[in-house]
Amino acid sequence: MKLISRIIFTKILFISLFSSLFAQIPQVPAEMEFADLILRINPQARREIQLDVDALHRSPKHFQVKMDRFNLYRPIIEREFRAAGVPEDLKYLVIQESGLIADAVSTSNAVGFWQFKQGTAEEVSIRVDRQVDERKNIVNSSRGAALYLRGHNRTFDNWMVSLIAYQMGAGGAKAYFGDRYRGKRIVDVDRNSHWYFKKFLAHKVAFGEQVFQLTSNTNSLRLAEVKVNGPTSLDALAKKYKVSEEHLKEMNKWTSNGKIPAGGPYYLVFVTDDQVEFETGIEPKNPAKSSNAGKSSPKYSTANSYPRIAGNTTKASQPDQITVNNLDGVQAASTTTQDTFAEKIGIKEKRFRRWNDLEPGERVEAGEYYYTEKKKAKAEVATHIVQPGETLWSISQKYGIKLSSLKAKNRIRRDQDLKAGMVLNLQEHRKRGEDIPVVQISNPSKTVIAKNEQPVNQPKSNPVTSASSNQKATNSASLTHTVSPGETLYAISKKYGVTVDQLKSWNRIGSQNIISVGQKLTIFKP
Questions:
Q1: What are the start and end residues of every segment in region (Disordered) (predicted)?
Q2: 52-101 residue pLDDT tens
Q3: d(CA 246, CA 237)
Q4: What is the C-alpha separation between 69 and 99, in angstroms, rounded?
Q5: Which one, 59, 323, 350, 513, has the greatest CB density within 10 A?
Q6: pTM flag (> 0.90)
């Protein structure tokens, strides 16, 4: 009996302590970090911000609902912000904007998680039409918000001003602030500071990391995310993923009437307590099929989904419309010179050449993707298996890694030293004296981004008799090629010894040079 009393007393004490802790509303500090800034908050501004913090905590029930929602979506938001190079601190803005309600609509007709108007949404490659409204999709809208904020910071070089520009637009922020805060890393917050930023600081304090630690749920609920291709329906997907159709409709309000149109990929989310991981492909992962038994090299793999193209691909040849491997990029609509192309997209020629590791005089090739910002020092994947016909430059473009970084990581300098099957490091530097592994390629990938030069002594293969699985002879004069992930018209034209213009003419491809994965292209034998 005494033991039971002690247990009850302990539980009551724990609940009492927890309630006491929760009741301790976080206080606004005199100095705090935000992004890469140090904020010094004077007493009057602290009192003003604290009033908003207190208001957010006034109803424990409503606060917990928002916190639970935030905890559910937070990993996706943080991931998209990291990928875009945006400080994770800005994630609290989504609570301020919509309370993480997917179909929230403002009085000015801004919609969704991040409260985009249609025109602004389209600027950052968020699809809005009768079939799909990606403003209500946590993945696409968070990616768009990250791009929007990043664009502002390139203009203002200050994350406080960039955040305020989210509310008042770049033009409004420019008129309001001028260059007053450009490059400034210590900011004083006082009674004259913009109300929108002070409101944001209240959300950062109210929902900050310490509060998250205190209120974090210990259950196993999480947000599952899968890529799906249409056409399909939420009804069919509900059966596939063993969740209710009603739940999918509630979590995926970006669809129209539960229908997912042709194309994709689209991002489907649902809450699950199942610890099985889902591929960011179409099917759930099957542990029974994940064994590497029978593979010639279970340690290495080639990522055939690169380069990753996202955004408004119908305007891929225009600047600020697409991203290539999460970097700003553009697709060349026609073969031209570097200076002509650079002028067209609004970048200095030398900068364009440096960002794409091009030699002076090399031509810009139709159908190729080029970067309009610096490539990274490492790729998103660890290794790449060299395929026949690839060059160091084509691999660097494929993954968005600097050519110099690729060479340095692998201690290799010349294309002549590349061999099919070589396993190149894309993240870590190879140790001095360490040989580059070479694996056997049983079915060589044909996804190649060819540099603007002809391979030396490269024998031509007969496209009609090639054993590649993505091509077949349709008759004695023509054959069919199925577009694989990452392929371009230029790469395909080189593969078959034809011109890009011929490919476009044979397949009625418009001036934008847009092709899609799985598309069947007719190729006439030269």
A1: 281-322, 452-480
A2: 999 999 999 999 999 999 999 999 999 999 988 999 999 999 999 999 99
A3: 11
A4: 8
A5: 323
A6: no
